[in-house]
Amino acid sequence: MTTNNHMTSALFLLLGTLLILSQTCLGDDHHRNASLSIDMSSRRLIPNNFFGIFFEEINHAGVGGLWAELVSNRGFEAGGRHVPSMISPWGMIGDEKTISITTDMSSQFKTNPMALRMDVHCNPTTCPPGGVGTYNPGYWGMNIEEGKTYKVTFYVKSSGDLKAVLSLVGKNGTEVLAFKHIGADAEKMKKWTKIETTLTATGSDSKARLQLTTSQKGIIWLDQVSAMPTDTYKGHGFRKDLMKKLLNLKPRFLRFPGGCYVEGNTLANAFRWKETVGPWEERPGHLNDVWNYWSDDGLGYLEYLQLAEDLGAEPVWVINNGFGLLDSVDTPLIKPFVQEMLDSIEFARGNAKTSKWGSLRAKLGHPAPFSLKYIAIGNEDCGKPNYRENYVKFYNAVKKAYPDIKTISNCDASKKDLDHPADLYDYHNYTSPQGMLDNTRLFGKMSRNKPHAPKAFVSEYAVTDPTYKLDGTFKGALAEAAFLLSLEKNSDVVEMVSYAPLFMNQNDRKWSPDAIVFNSDKSYGIASYWVQTFFKESSGAVLLDSHLRIHAKDDNIYATAVKWTDKTEKKNYVTVKVVNFNHASANLDISLDGVDRKSIKLARQTVLTTDDLEGDNTFDNPTKVVPETSRFNSKDKKSLHDLVVEPFSFTAFDLVLN
User: Any signal peptide, and if so, which residues (predicted)?
Assistant: First the structure.
């Protein structure tokens, strides 16, 4: 009996111990406690241009994307200066008996000699109904919307009277969405004639095409065909829905136009700014041989500067420093490239009346100078032969002529000091989710005892795990959020940051993931895009000293606190951002030292999370992963103690200061 009692007691003791241990383990798996203490007396400012965007001409980001031109290969130059040449994506309406189409070099534009020639073999009685001619489907279809107006411009000449129909038709080629008769007598048509007109759509089709048809026997030449919506952003040629997504980020800078696009595989196909300014008909265009498509350069240097101005962002101009991916210029021969850079700065900043390039800018419609304060000397060229020697030539020329401009070196100084002068240095971070988390410690380890050392410009970052088959994953975006918090916390040594790439046309996926995915009529932001929206008030804000304590065995919780002013509401906020990269939720206790707690109230809470860590937004479900905001009024007595931070989530708590 006594033995049995002892055995029973021991059994209950063992079971009780196991129960306590199991509850403790369950607590680690399903619940954590964390505390964040914030010093409200902090005064360190985050750089004014901390958060921005990087635009590269990749994935048809501009051509067939942000730049709203609807016609692809509008000057027939994409096939090269050969006769005959490829005219894709232009197509023929009719058959070989009724029409033949080729190219010749009869254009009136010396920089764009190619033109389209249509030999019409039929007449009004023998041509098929609707006539014969040519059509252009744009970039995988033109988005034509009922009630909207489109400006169409083209150059034409003919062997006789011109009797043609210009129309926008549906993807099947039969439904007419808009049309206009185009006619002129033979005398006028002997010479190239510019036709400008508008078409107002009576129907909608996101896969529409533009076509020119005739039933008049003879020869018609066609050149430099453009179709643009009349309602682009501020009339500057940018697609409105995509601009809306950029404006939502409130970027403080725009890095452009690349990336490898700046260099080309060879310098013969590098971005040359002087060939991208002036009348669009005279821009020769070039082969984007890195990403394998033709650019007509309608989106040129002036348009990039205008884009930055429209976004309220500082332009960061990445110049070609004498390098292609496969070739380069030796330092003794680099002087013309240095002069190209100086001319580009003068174009942006020069006096509209007294400078050569400034007066050209004014002539092209922008008399006021642009703000240009950053020059990146090349892209990912550090380590290549001649880079340092070439770089110094560019650096010295910039500082002599424009000492206020900040120069950006391609060489990473996060672990080793530079052997050449620079104001900033490029740091690119493409890695796995775990690699991104590991890099949250990088800039915290850097020495603070070098006040004149260049600061980091994290100009390209993204989780790019090769196993991902989607445009991205929420797990990757959450790791990026943790990395961004580390940059915010270390913004005394990190001056600027931008995600890469920015855009992808779903029909030309050269790189993935990309922050914004689009087609001819729709677009969505992936989770990585929505992560960036949490930082749109960071630039110029006060970084508050904070200390995070986590009462658990791991440390996959990250947090920062910033103070900023909403100028519209005329209120001061403290925003606490928290990444919880764990399977367990966390109870967060926020304490603010140096202020009366009664003067602080929780105004709103924004959460980005999903149960599908490997999923992301798609065209079928574009809002699968988007932030959700809860707002609290003065009657809600929401405590700053035991705030719940969900598992695998990014949360922002906005505290209003009375």
Answer: 1-27
